[in-house]
Amino acid sequence: DTALVWFRRDLRADDHAALHRALTRHRRVFCAFVLDTAILDALPRADRRVEFILDALRVLDADLGALAPGAGLIVRHGVARDEIPALAAALGAGALYFNRDDEPDALRRDAAVGEALLARGLQIESFKDHVVFERSEVLTGARQPYGVFTPYKNAWLKAVTPFFLSSYPIEKHAAHLAALPDGTPPAGQRVPSLGDIGFEPAGLSAALTGGSAGAQRLFAEFLDRMARYADTRDFPAIKGPSYLSTHLRFGTISIRQLAREAWRRGHGGHDDRDGPAGEGARTWLSELIWRDFYHQVLHHHPRVVERAFRPEYDRIRWAEGPDADADFEAWCQGRTGYPLVDAAMHQINETGYMHNRLRMVTASFLIKDLGIDWRRGEAYFARQLLDFDLAANNGGWQWAASSGCDAQPYFRIFNPVSQSEKFDPDGKFIKRYLPQLAKLPPKLIHAPWLAKPAELAACGVMLGRDYPAPIVRHETARMATMDRYAVVKSRE
Ligand code: FAD
């Protein structure tokens, strides 16, 4: 009557579907996490995500210990598809429990682990935990997956009930958490250090430490400003969004907890109350629904990982060769000469986070101003983002490329200067990441190349010395993009 719960993208000890189910069905439940070398070996040696995970594991281990004396987390470092079957055998487990992860690589890994365990007669149980509605739970009247967000969202809101948002309690069943087997390192030493697994510090911001406890702190803070979210979310210099994406990615907070609170505040828990009071909560819930939306897109159309959701967009010929490579490097390093784009790229490079408005602006700039394949930008974000999530990142990039499910039309091309004037009017965000432009007044900061050299000199700036001249002219690029995208209309 022993079960093993395998933690992956769900690093918390509360409101946890697999752990709850295991504890209610088995008398001895072990908890394990594998630092999977099949994933870790491909990462650079300094990666903030690894730091985040180790920190979250320490909190999870301590939380399990606080729930039941002697309990804790078994941490293995190796290939998950070998480690999990070996651990299950060593513990004498008759069942393996885990929460589902619908990324293609994860599905392959889980299938391999499942096969190995089924062959030995173990029972495998997987659960929905990472999203509110998964896979085919929200379909059109014709039982087809939705391809457009707004009808999906309406169907989501119609389908949701307190049942889908209620939490899976752990504490009252915690007596079934098994004491760790002999030979497990003592508390405080169970989670290896970065050095132990061959990594170096990458500089995780203090705001993102503390695992699930840190997530609860951030959420409590956000609750005070949720009502203003609709008005503040688009301005990167303002503390508007929740900054919870990394916690959602690694499951250090439960999506049900977040959606429950937003639904209660925005929709009164049952009916759709109109009026300004719940506007912020409704807008925020809508973002959480986008997350579910992109997860179901990935589930139904896994080909989006490699190709355009709309096949005709794979006819586009992207800029290639040394000039394109140089442009790509300039974009990655924040040297395009467009201050908002460059400040945003400094934000992602220095912190591992980028504001949503800026993800749209920088993605659009790479694709529609530089003519570079969205997949190159997607891969760069995937390396840099702490909150990197295949479904949301691919969805965001295909949205910007106009090739995705419910993407913006291809002829809608963000103007990086007007986006800057509109969403960072005083240049406050720009100055935070490009201190060399700190003295420029708002009228010069969005497009410094339009200023007279003497005006710039008065602010201590010389283009080409302190800050680059623009690598592309937006108006020219716009025309080139319209030509480039013309192939999506032709039939050949
Ligand atoms: P909030 O504004 O507080 O939103 C709350 C939560 O809703 C987020 O944490 C996130 O889980 C979800 N969410 C918000 N917007 C979206 C969206 N458009 N699509 C899916 N989920 C959303 N989000 C990721 O989590 N991982 C990514 O790798 C990622 N890559 C992106 C790439 C591009 C090109 C674009 C345009 C967007 C991307 N997003 C991604 C979506 C969005 O930018 C981030 O979720 C958001 O900026 C995270 O900040 P926050 O937690 O403060 O968001």
From TrEMBL:
Domain Photolyase/cryptochrome alpha/beta, residue spans: 1-132
Keyword Transcription attached: no
Organismal lineage: Bacteria, Pseudomonadati, Pseudomonadota, Betaproteobacteria, Burkholderiales
Catalytic reaction(s) noted: cyclobutadipyrimidine (in DNA) = 2 pyrimidine residues (in DNA)
Catalytic activity, EC: 4.1.99.3
Binding, FAD: 229, 284, 287-294, 387-389
One Gene Ontology term from the biological process aspect of the record: photoreactive repair
Cofactor note: Binds 1 FAD per subunit.
InterPro entries to which the protein is assigned, alphabetical: Crypto/Photolyase_FAD-like_sf, Crypto/Photolyase_N_sf, Cryptochr/Photolyase_FAD-bd, Cryptochrome/DNA_photolyase_1, DNA_photolyase_1_CS_C, DNA_photolyase_N, Rossmann-like_a/b/a_fold
Enzyme class: lyase
Family: Belongs to the DNA photolyase family.
Domain of life: Bacteria
The entry's keywords: Chromophore, FAD, Flavoprotein, Lyase
Stated name of the protein: Deoxyribodipyrimidine photo-lyase
GO molecular function: deoxyribodipyrimidine photo-lyase activity; DNA binding; FAD binding
Site (Electron transfer via tryptophanyl radical) residue list: 318, 374, 397
Keyword Flavoprotein attached: yes
Known cofactor(s): FAD; (6R)-5,10-methylene-5,6,7,8-tetrahydrofolate
